[in-house]
Amino acid sequence: MAELVAVVAGATRGCGRGIAVELGAIGATVYVAGRTTRSSASPMNRPETIEDTAELVTKAGGQGIPVRCDFTVQSDVAALRDRLTRLDVLVDDVWGGDPFVDHERPFWESDLDAALRVHRNGMETHLVALHTLVPLMVRQGSGLVIEITDGDDETYHGTALPYYLVKSGIRRIGQAMAKQLSPHGVTALALTPGFIRSEAMLDMLGVTEETWRDAIAQDPHFAMAESPHYVGRGVAALATDPDVHRFAGQSLSSWRLMREYDFKDLDGTQPDWGRWYDDIFGKGLSTDSVDPADYR
Question: What InterPro entries does UniProt report for this protein, alphabetically (predicted)?
């Protein structure tokens, strides 16, 4: 099989970084696209950079190419497109909405400008990426488009309305693009991680990737936390599956892909957030009498 060429939109940190690195681990050339560089910070005000991610991709065995790209700016995305001669995998992981999400107040009492910014950063960016980059796949008659979201169904769990709108909308994008792209040999789908151990989450809980289990005392459900590499390994499995089109239009999850492809997280376990949610979290049950190891 020829070397895969991938674009990971929003690859600076979190799921995007984990996905980019795991694509590198299967030998892919990965265009690491995002806003934060070593010389220019983004409004997220985080220390991670696209150059850091690109170096991790190369260290994993692929070729990481950092590209500074603001996906709200179509000319930035067009400049990225013009660097590509082919595109096998597009991972649409742009978010950048956390600073503007208000989970505490009802929508009508929240800041409207912030709400609209959540929509712009989390939804319009995906549309810009698709409109600009998907034609490469249509012309070559092959490719895989993965829309990264939060959650695998449309149940409303009380999150902020703009957040719910964006994440459910991304799932609908995966469904709609599958219908439009299937006749052209391109597969589109949506994918969610479970309880993700992003850099921001680790910082918030005062732990590191090496000491993350110390945070279980603060949040018992963190016992099911998964590294960003876990969903990344799911993406790598999808990217190398010759029968991937069977998933077209579906809303997949890291735990479902784990069951399908039998990969493990960095610590050698297989966290199953879906089963934990069904048995414990979703029912509001205490974790006192539960052994998290039974769900990993």
Answer: NAD(P)-bd_dom_sf, SDR_fam
In the chain the first and final C-alpha atoms are separated, in Å, by: 33
Low-confidence ranges of the chain (pLDDT < 50): none
Q: How many CA atoms lie within 13 A of 127 on its CB side?
A: 10
Structural domains for the chain: 5-196+227-270 (3.40.50.720)
The tens digit of pLDDT for each residue in 219-278 reads: 999 999 999 999 999 999 999 999 999 999 999 999 999 999 999 999 999 999 999 999
d(CA 71, CA 35): 9
Predicted pLDDT at 236: 98
